[in-house]
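Throughout this review, each integer encodes one residue's backbone shape. One record appears below.

===
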Amino acid sequence: MNSSDSLNHDSMRVDKWLWAARFFKTRSIAKTAIEGGKVHHEGERVKVSKEIRIGMELTIQQGFDKKTVVIKALSAKRGGAPQAQLLYEETPTSIARRELISSQRKLNNLARPDHRPNKKDRRQINKFKQENNFSDDWLDYTN
């Protein structure tokens, strides 16, 4: 058995760690996200083969969420969610930022009407527009 076969966990590839920490379902999805610029270390994009160590801080973007995590442990095996959560700790500023953005998204959704306008509603909208001289060419006057 050579030294590369031994379980040396002082550093490991970032794609493997992201998979083990359950940020991504497969290593190939983790690789695609890294190549797409969704994972950063110290404000710089990382490469798939980047060696990470305990104490490093990564910024990971998944959909709308952008998490900043500090690596607490390394694992080459993918375990359950409780074990995966022991591998990292999200920073307090990251948690606060995500909660703020999430609440703003929820407030934006409240501004939407509950349903599409039906025929009667559309007639009322058109009548209102005609009575108040609203038309599509009002944009010409704003320039």
